Amino acid sequence: MHFSELLSTLPLFIRYFFTVVDRHSLQAPYVFNLYSELMVGMRSTHGLPAVEAFRQIYLRDHSLVCGSDFGAGSRLKTKKTVATIARHGISSRKDCTFLYELARITQPQTCIELGTSLGIATAYLSKSVPVGKIYTFEGNEELVSRTHAMLGKLDCDNVEIIRGNIDSELPVFLDQIEEVDFALLDANHTFEALTHYFYLLKRKMSPGACMVIDDIRWSKGMHAAWQQIRADGRVSLSMEFLHKGVVIFDLPVSKQHYVLSY
Q1: Is 79 exposed, middle or buried (CB count within 10 Å of its CB: 0-12, 13-18, 19+)?
Q2: Please, which residues bridge with residue 249 across strands?
Q3: What is the per-residue pLDDT across 173-208, written as a single tens digit (0 to 9) for each?
Q4: Which end of the chain, N or C, is surrounded by fewer C-beta atoms within 10 Å?
Q5: Is residue 128 part of a domain?
Q6: Would you say 77 and 67 are in contact if contact means Cβ atoms under 8 Å apart?
Q7: Distance in angstroms (rounded) separating the CA atoms of residues 210 and 138
Q8: Which residues constitute the domain of residue 129?
């Protein structure tokens, strides 16, 4: 991202810090309980050591990863090292712990992750819902191979990696399943791609299903997509956690939105 683009997102972060609240400001019991349990879990978990050991291996691996990069709005052939991807292109330990706790609380049966990368977040999701099934989508074959090897060593037997471009693979996959209970959208970071994936997934999201959208303040386009998503008629509850947005579908409550400390 160019510096001018980064600078243009500064007001989005300033607005967040001026509007953020903590759990003591929450009146709705469902939101209070969900947020309280989520924060307590994050303070007590501090990551999964076995998974974090692989993050450290990746951070020391300077071998090149070649192939198509379908993320961040780019389809150019790129060359990046594993260490660079581990440092800048995957979820942090805190973010992975957030996903782990959110999935642990909601206990979904069917999870979809768009954008596997090196599979660290995938492993966290796998461990959080051992009786659930994780379907993760990745277009880069080298990353798929590395993730497959890591998941095997971690005994993440409930994960299936779906290879190829999400744009073509996701519609085919969704036609083959009945419902999705949890979805993580962390792939192509453009307004068009994010809204496209949302509307594809929306028709399959079960009542009470949870969707996490990463990097909602990555660009003006991403934030505009987030605003459109949280305004959707099926979204009962939307929550912002700095970089992440969470929406929950079809709850028996009036539409609610919260900007929460993270």
Answers
A1: exposed
A2: 235
A3: 999 999 999 999 999 999 999 999 999 999 999 999
A4: N
A5: yes
A6: yes
A7: 21
A8: 3-48+90-259
